[in-house]
Amino acid sequence: MKIGELAKLTGCYVKTISYYEKEQLLPSTRRSEGEFRRYDQAAAEQRLCIKLCRGLDHSVSESRLEL
Fold first, then answer.
1. Residue segments in the chain with a per-residue pLDDT below the cut of 50
2. What confidence score (pLDDT) does residue 66 get?
3. How far apart are CA 30 and CA 65, in angstroms?
4. Is residue 47 within 8 Å of 53, Cβ to Cβ?
5. How many whole angstroms separate alpha carbon 50 and alpha carbon 30?
6. pLDDT at 58
7. Contacts (Cβ under 8 Å, ≥6 apart) of 54
8. What is the pLDDT of residues 18-33, one digit of tens each?
9. For residues 53 and 34, what is the distance between their CA atoms, to the nearest angstrom?
10. Which one, of 65, 64, 66, lies nearest residue 25 by Cα?
């Protein structure tokens, strides 16, 4: 799925997903021929785990340790 689809599925912003990828909370993704990021179901599940940690007031650093 594309980044917009992942954002919609997980209820977050595209910028948030890009930030978490930059901070290495989400693994780097493969790219399509058109240079679109492609995510799989595992990325969606991981994003939901990050969302849960952040919802519990964990910092980004603490969320990284939880994963």
1. none
2. 62
3. 24
4. no
5. 20
6. 84
7. 60, 63
8. 898 888 888 777 787 8
9. 33
10. 64
